[in-house]
# Entry
Amino acid sequence: MRQRATIFFAALASIALIAGTGPDRVFPAASEPAPRSRILSMEDAIVAGLRRNLNLEIARLSVPSERQGVAESRSAFDPVFEGSLSAEEEKYPTGSVMYDDAYRRTERTEARAGVGKRFDFGLESRFSARGSRTESNSLANSLDPQYRQVFVLELTQPLLRGFGRDPNTSDIRISQNRVREAALATLHQARGLSGAIESAYFDLVQAQTILDLRIEFRDLARQLAEGNAKRQRAGMIPITQVRESKTAVLDRDEQVLLARQGVETAANRLKDLMEIRSGATPAASPLPAVHRAFPEIREALVTAFKERADLRRLHVALESRNIRLAFLKNQRLPRLDLTATLGLNGLTGDDQAVQLFGKTETSPLEGDWDDHLERALEGDGHHWAVGLQFSYPLGNRAADARYQRGQLKKRQVIYSVKRLEGTIETDIRNALVQVERSRQRVETADRFADLAWETLQGEMKRLSRGLSDTFRILDQQEDLIAARIRTVRAAVDFHKGLAWLYRAMGTNLRRYGIMAEIEAD
# Structure
C-alpha cells in the first residue's frame, strides 16, 4: 500500500513546480513541451512586424507621397520660360494709293521668348524679348524689310489681397504640415501594430503555458491510471476506479489537443501580423512575472498628451487650419495692385527712298538685321508705365463664405482634439483598472491554487490509508489545474493591460527600446 502511495506522491511532486506562491513568479515550461522553433522575444516580434507588415508599409509610403506635395506647392515660385515662333503673310485688296498695286502685302516672321517669376511676397514679374522681320509693299515705308527688337519688363505687386509672405506661402506650409500629419499617422499605426503584436504574443504565451499545464496534468492522470491498474490486479479497488482513471486520461488527451490547437491558432495570428507566411511555429518566451511597477494616472495622462501621435497629428491639423484661415481672411480684402512696365525697342532695315511732297526721304535707322538689337539696348526707343489696379466684388459673398467655412472647419478640429483627449483619458483609466484588477486576480488565484494543492495533498494521504478514491483525486486535480489556468489568464490579462496602458500613453515602442524611423524623424 505504501509503495503504491509513493507512486502517487512522486507524480504529484511535479505539481509543486506549478503551484508556486506569490504574484512575482515566472511560469515554468512543462517537462514535455510541444515541439517548437527557437524562442522569439517580444522585441524581435515587434521589430519584425514593423519591418514587414504590409499595412504599415502602405501607410509609410504616404510620407514621401506628401513630400511630393511640398515640391508641387513650391513649384508655384519656379521661373516659367515661354517662347514662340511664328510666320504670317497677308494680302488684302486696298483702295489706297500708298501701295504699289491694288493689294496690301505683308510678310512677318516673329520670335518671342520670355521668363515669368512669382515671388513669395506676392510680386509677379515677366521679362520678355520679341524680335521680328517685316516686309511690306507700302510706298510709305522707308525701311523694307524692317527688323524690330523689343524688351519688356512687367511687374505687378499686390498691396492688399495677396500681399506678404504668409498668404503666398500658405500652400507650402500646409503641404509641409501634411507631411508631418502623414508621418504621425504612420507612427500611430506603427504603435497600434506594436500593441496588436503584444496582444497576439501574450495570447501565444498563454496558449503555450496552458498547453504545458495540460500536459503536466495529463501525465498525472496517466500515472494514476497505471497505479489503479496495479491496485485493481491486487484486488484493492474495484474496476470502476480503473475505468474512471482511464476516462480521465482520454479527457485530458482531448484537452491537450485543444490546447495545441490554441497554440497553433495563436501562432498563426502572430505570424500574420509579422507577415510570415511559412516556416515553423514561433515559440514565445515564458510568461513574465507580475509586478506592481506601472505609471499612476496623472503621470500617464501627462505622457499621453505629449506623446500620442494621433493627438499630435490633430494639433498639426489645427495649425494647418489656422494657416488656411489667415489666408482666407486676406482674400476678403480688396484687390489693389501696383503695376509697372518698362520697355526698350529698336528698329533697323534696308533703306528705301520715299517720294514725299516732291522730295526723296530716307530713314536714319538704316542698318543690317543685327543692328536692331544694339539700337534697342541704347534705349533711344523706350516706353514705361506705372499704375494702380483696383477690384472688389460687391458684397464679397464668396470670400466671406469661404472664411466662415474655414472657421467652422477649425472648430471641428478643436472638438476632435477635445474628444480624443477624453478618449485617451478613458483608455488609460480602463487600462489601469485592468492592470490593477488582474494583479489582484493573480494573487487570489494563487491563494486558491495553494488551497487546492493542500486539499489534493490531504486527499492523497487519505488515499494512502484507503479513506479516499479515484473520483475525489481526479476532482481535486481538476480544481488545481483550473486554479493554475486562472492564474495564467489573470497574469496574461495583467500584461495585456500594461500593453494597453503604454499604447494609450504612446510609449509602447520606447518601452522595448525600439525607435521607429518615422519617430526619429
Summary: The CA atoms of residues 452 and 479 lie 6 Å apart. The mean pLDDT is 85.
